[in-house]
Amino acid sequence: MTSALPPETARSLAAVSRSLVGEWGLTPDPVEDWGRSSHVVPVRTADGVPAVLKVAAADPGTEHEALALQHWGGRGAVRPLRADPRRRAVLLERLERRDLTQEWDGEPAPLLWNRLEEAEGDVRRTVRVRFETVVDAAGLDEDRARAWAVVRLVLNAFWSVRSDRPDPAYVTRMLTVLKAVQS
């Protein structure tokens, strides 16, 4: 798969990935992938443990990813095995299929705002359909999932406003999704 990122950014992320594979003693699988804003490489650790190396482009959504994953510690999210926050790199466990509803009620917020620009027409309806689909498919408690989404969306907007370079479009996006989730 090719990257949708600017070529210079894609080359830079791939170079960081190659560097970390060597530094951390990883063995890459033959297939790499590109997220909307990251380079993803399935790897095995020196002990043979399947993992995923993710190196993200600099943006507000990835700034504290390693800290958030460390805080959650595998409860409802992948468990980080190692991280280099300065380079926005995380080595993540490869999740086996498991019922996350037994561990945590999940956090659907990122599924609501990611790729929102692809929504055609009624953005509010698109967000509501996404939210209801995630809640139904994962068997989540709707009120608890909504509460988690509200907290995350408010914090994202707050952190952006408080940052050195606030991003008005990002804040607007978070508040748009927030309004849709609450309606």
Describe this structure in words.
The protein is of the alpha+beta class. The chain contains 6 helices and 6 strands, in the order H-E-E-E-E-H-E-E-H-H-H-H. The protein has helices at 7-23, 65-72, 109-113, 123-138, 142-162, 168-182; strands at residues 27-28, 33-34, 38-44, 50-56, 80-84, 89-93. Helix 5 packs antiparallel against helix 6 (168-182).
Give the structure's gist in a few sentences:
The chain has 183 residues and is of the alpha+beta class.
Helix/strand layout:
Layout: H1 7-23, E1 27-28, E2 33-34, E3 38-44, E4 50-56, H2 65-72, E5 80-84, E6 89-93, H3 109-113, H4 123-138, H5 142-162, H6 168-182
Antiparallel strand pairs: 1-3, 2-3, 3-4, 4-6, 5-6
Helix pairs in contact: 4-6, 5-6
Primary descriptors:
single chain; 183 residues; alpha+beta; Phosphorylase Kinase, domain 1; 6-stranded antiparallel β-sheet; 6 helices; 6 strands; 15% strand
Structural class: alpha+beta
Compute the separation of the termini in Å.
38 Å
Q: Tell me about the biggest sheet?
A: 6 strands, antiparallel
Radius of gyration in whole Å, from Cα?
Answer: 17 Å
Counted by DSSP, the helix tally is 6
Q: Give the domain tally.
A: 2
CATH-level-2 architecture of the largest domain:
2-Layer Sandwich
Strand residue percentage? 15-25%
Q: What characteristic shape results from the CA principal axes? A: globular
N to C succession of SSEs: HEEEEHEEHHHH
CATH topology of the largest domain: Phosphorylase Kinase, domain 1
What is the number of strand segments? 6
| Average pLDDT metric | 83
Helix content: 40-55%
CATH top level of the largest domain?
Answer: Alpha Beta
Poorly predicted regions are 100-105
Any idea what the CATH superfamily of the largest domain is called? Phosphorylase Kinase, domain 1
